[in-house]
Design goal:
single chain, two-stranded antiparallel sheet, alpha/beta, binds S-adenosylmethionine, 6 helices, globular, 28% strand
Amino acid sequence: MDGTTPGQYFEADPTVESRRRVIHLTLPDVSMDLTTDSGVFSGDRVDAGTKLLLLEAPLPPATGHLLDLGCGYGPIAVTLAHRSPEATVWAVDVNERAVALCAENARTRGQTNVRAIVGDNPEAATPNGLSPDVRFAAIYSNPPIRIGKPALHQLLIGWLALLAPDGVAHLVVQKHLGSDSLARWLIEAGWPTTRLTSRAGYRILTIDRPVEP
Ligand SMILES: C[S@@+](CC[C@H](N)C(=O)[O-])C[C@H]1O[C@@H](n2cnc3c(N)ncnc32)[C@H](O)[C@@H]1O
């Protein structure tokens, strides 16, 4: 997808005409129909990186607060909510159409533990319902690499700061979109980062909270 064209999927309010459709996500433990639309990321099929993350990343903690950063129409959030029904899954995106779809997809599956909210950083998400005292046991994300490095770094640092002391983040990033330089940058910024998986042009990066001195 070309991140420089008008009508980008990460606009707050996509003006591109709605074209809703249903796509299918099949995982070893669950399969589901998900409604998507134009103006949201990968609306025609589940993104290959997202699927790899859902196949390869460790299962989410059973309880506590989980974050899907950049939730889109919700494939990660809805899967996390299925896998950890006792946890609260916060699904955050800047794209209002995507957040509405994520909430709808959770609702359709009868999930009451997904909180889908709009916000391009934690401060912006708080008036929309993010509790200010939330600390995340785990963050899962197919992050918006195409917003550019400065914005991406700011976004990640803002949300990683809300990891619980033993919290962990799992990011899937395409190698050709800079997964290795992102890992180096995170390490230099003080966030211990390791490569969990490397497959089919994607890396899954696992980030721990720095140990307090
Ligand atoms: C690569 S897509 C992943 C979408 C979805 N998680 C999936 O797997 O299909 C990244 C998402 O990040 C969102 N995004 C872009 N900038 C953001 C920001 N500042 N805060 C939160 N989400 C943002 C985009 O709107 C997009 O939905």
